[in-house]
Amino acid sequence: MKGSHLKRVIRNRVVQHLVFWILAFYVLLRIFTTAEDLLKIDLIYTTIFILTMLPGLYVNLMILIPNLLSRGRYIAFILLLTITMLLTAALNFFTFSYLIDYILPGYYFISYYDFIDLMKFMIVMTFVTTLLKLSKGWFQLLETRNQLSRLEKENAETKLLALKSQINPHFLFNSLSGIYALVLKKAPNAPEVILRLSDFLRYILYQASAPSVSLSSELAAMRDYVELQKLRAGKQSLITFEITRTEDDRQVVPLLFLPLIENCFKHGIKGETGPSFATIRFIAGQKTITGFFSNNKGKSEEPVDASFSGIGLKNLRDRLEMIFPGRYDLKIDDPENSFTVELTVPLYE
Q1: With contact defined as beta carbons under 8 Å apart, do 111 and 93 qualify?
Q2: Minimal CA–CA distance to 201: which of 177, 178, 225?
Q3: Plot region of 302 (φ>0 → left; ψ -120 to 50 → alpha; else → beta)
């Protein structure tokens, strides 16, 4: 609480200007003081000197920089800034040469500096105040960019969570439908199916929400899902699940391959009387993992474009673009009687 209050005080515009002029007053006072002891007249002289410089400096800060320099009108900025500095130096010279006797009679002030010296003072003070103004704007721009970057990251993470929340129920619905059919038939393998579904649910609920999971956990969940669908599909379907693994300690983004496996069963194995097949194969290398997914087409199979408009594969494309922009490889082969997808994504340490 104290830290945030201090930040607000530091960022306060009035406080910033006040601190600057206190420092400027101290520096000029050291320059103007000639005696060993600080005298009252030195304080008065320094105060009036700064007051005569203020109009020109703030014309530059409040008018010239925002309206000319910031908009790229450099020639007009240099011309008007030069005129402003000349007029400010002239005001200082005129004040100490003529007006001071009327403002403070009895002090006998004189202009200690000629016009050229006053211009040097003005140039230095203008340069310092302009640099501080531009530096403040740069830091504000940098902070704004950092805030936008954080917002974009939070938005991307929120979108990924939304995509996952759409994907998971989609797959679970298919699995639960198979369980329901087996229970109605009082099939002896129903307990095995329920156990596999339990493992799959545990993975979905407690592991798949993480940004990355172990490769072994992901592949075990894929196997559970395939086994669930294999029991549902029946003996007339040829279902193959293979894993070629060379690296076991790698991490992978969860649930990337599940839409493709689900697609094999949704568009290939539909319980038709004719031969049907689904082939799922994983090859895990040192830096990437590749999944191969192939299935037959049903009699009423939709074109690949229509197939990919479904929620599962559409979300897969969205996730790939968000997580691995330019670093994944998705290949689709859509001949007359079969449909094949090959997806390669990076593995993590």
Answers
A1: yes
A2: 225
A3: beta
Cβ atoms 349, 299 nearer than 8 A: no
User: What SS3 class is residue 220?
Assistant: helix
Phi (first) and psi of residue 166, to 5 degrees? -80, -40
User: How do residues 263-293 score in pLDDT, each as one tens digit?
Assistant: 887 766 654 545 688 899 999 888 899 999 9
- How many Cβ atoms sit within 10 Å of the Cβ of residue 142? 10
Reading phi first (left if > 0) and then psi (alpha if -120 to 50, else beta), residue 106 is in left
Structure tokens at 203: 């993975």
User: For residues 75-89, b (16+ Cβ closer than 10 Å) or e, as one string?
Assistant: eebeebbeebbeebb
Write the CA distances from 192 to 196, 201, 215, 221, integer angstroms. Answer: 6, 14, 24, 15
337: left (phi over 0), alpha (psi -120 to 50) or beta: alpha
The pLDDT score that the predictor gives to residue 345 is 94
Q: pTM to 2 decimals?
A: 0.51
Q: What is the secondary structure of 231-285 as a DSSP string?
A: HHH-TTEEEEEEEEES-SS-EE-TTSSHHHHHHHHHHT-SS-SS-EEEEEEEEE-
What's the rounded Cα separation, in Å, for the pair 230 and 223?
A: 10
CA distance 156 to 164: 12
Question: How far is CA 345 from its chain centroid?
Answer: 22
The C-alpha atoms of residue 254 and residue 208 are separated, in whole angstroms, by: 5
Close Cβ partners of 66 (under 8 Å, ≥ 6 residues apart): none
- Whether 175 and 197 have beta carbons less than 8 Å apart is answered as yes
Contacts of 282 (CB under 8 A, 6+ apart): 219, 222, 242, 243, 244, 245, 257, 289, 290, 291, 292
Residues β-bridged to residue 242: 281
Q: What is the pLDDT of residues 286-338, one digit of tens each?
A: 889 999 999 887 655 444 444 444 565 667 777 788 888 889 998 888 787 78
Q: What share of the chain is helix, strand, coil (3-state, %, to 5)?
A: 65, 15, 25
pLDDT at site 320: 85
